[in-house]
User: What shape does this take?
Amino acid sequence: QVQLVESGGGLVQPGGSLRLSCAASAASGIIFSINGMYWYRQAPGKERELVAGITRGGIANSVDTVKGRFTVSRDNAKNTLYLQMNSLEPEDTAVYLCNADGIRTSGGIISTYWGQGTQVTVSS
Assistant: This one.
């Protein structure tokens, strides 16, 4: 029904930057609106953790470990979520996953949906 496709991951040196994107689309029909959109990450052997989120109205928040380094934003017209990551550290290495909730489509409302993730590796 819905696809969340992340992109922008890769290998970067410590101190470098990456910009992740998560584009939402409906397999058939259209997406009218999405409530909250979030970035999570999961490092090997660790629990999945919330990194940042943003409401449809643009209210953003992030966890303390990334404040001042990561910026979450979204383009409602494009149903796309972004994560600008600066001053990357090896500890930021993880699979970054996009999550969206309250997705209103022409086929109905989807309470929550996950993307497949994009790998971010910070290493020299």
User: Anything to note?
Assistant: The chain is about 0% helix and 60% strand. The radius of gyration is 14 Å.
